Request: fold
Amino acid sequence: MKRLLVLAAAATAMFAAHAQSAFPSSKPISLVVPFAAGGPTDRVARDLAEAMRKAMGGNANFVVENVNGAGGTIGVAKVARAAPDGHTLLVHHIGMAAAPALYRKLPYKMPDDFEYLGMINEVPMTIIGKPQLPANNYRDFENYIRANSGKLNIAHAGLGSASHLCGLMWQSAIKAKDAMTTIPFGGTAPAMNALVGGQVDMMCDQTTNTTGQIEAGRVKAFAVTTAKPLSNNKLLKDYPTLQEMGLKGFDLTIWHGLYAPKGTPPAVLAQLNTALKAALKDPDFIKKQEGLGAVVVTDKRVEPAAHKAFVIAEMNKLKPVIEAAGKFAD
Ligand code: MLT
Reply:
């Protein structure tokens, strides 16, 4: 019996060593982004790929793979089903916690189908409108919506996306759930193109996607979704919070995390978490993210266990909020 135990221990050690030595293999590490290219999630992934490549000494080739549709759930399902070898990872956001309360059946199980590698950043959101809107502050904007109830539309990136979640919570808070039609896109990059072109009226989106457009005057900004004003953000510091505009308790910040399929070997997870932590300390990564209003996570949520606990807590926090405000997707 003792010999068997010794053999089993040796085999396990060999497998772990093999997993360690075989990772990364010559094939690229795919960072799946469950939204269209050019949006805020894509932005985070591309910046992260560059920083993790550096952190892994350049011997890991990262590629960003956009797999959009169904509010991001198609891309998430692809990673849940991928080989657990460390070569297919998911960059996603609050949608990981929101989708289970928005879909009666998801093509993956939360939280069990994933390994949690660590949080990446936190990003405020902005309520924005097309340039032609006859409103130049939040109060006029909300009055315009009420005066045109049923005639306006709001863009988002599909059920379960951050822009959808924000729109849902905001419309519920201003009691305008039926005042506007929702228009889904494969991501907020195509949605932003429609907004700038005047084909849609408004949207709630992350500052990583809206900062440049607001600065260029291609969209109008009306408010930020965080509890506190963005006083450190030179562009957004003077925009009111929705709480200041009378929406009691409105507080929404989007977060992004890095995920792997369940069953990815611990040695590979540890290597990826080490690279993630180094990337989050990379001055170039921090500068890029902070330049777009994002805050890079430096607390314990960069640890896998704390990341998983945070996502589960967010699932429990969002469920009643969504059920009170939301519409179920079949
Ligand atoms: C979202 O609304 O979930 C994201 O902004 C979508 C995206 O990254 O394109």
Observations:
- The chain has eleven helices and ten strands.
- Residues 113 and 262 are 5 Å apart (CA to CA).
- The chain has a mean pLDDT of 93.
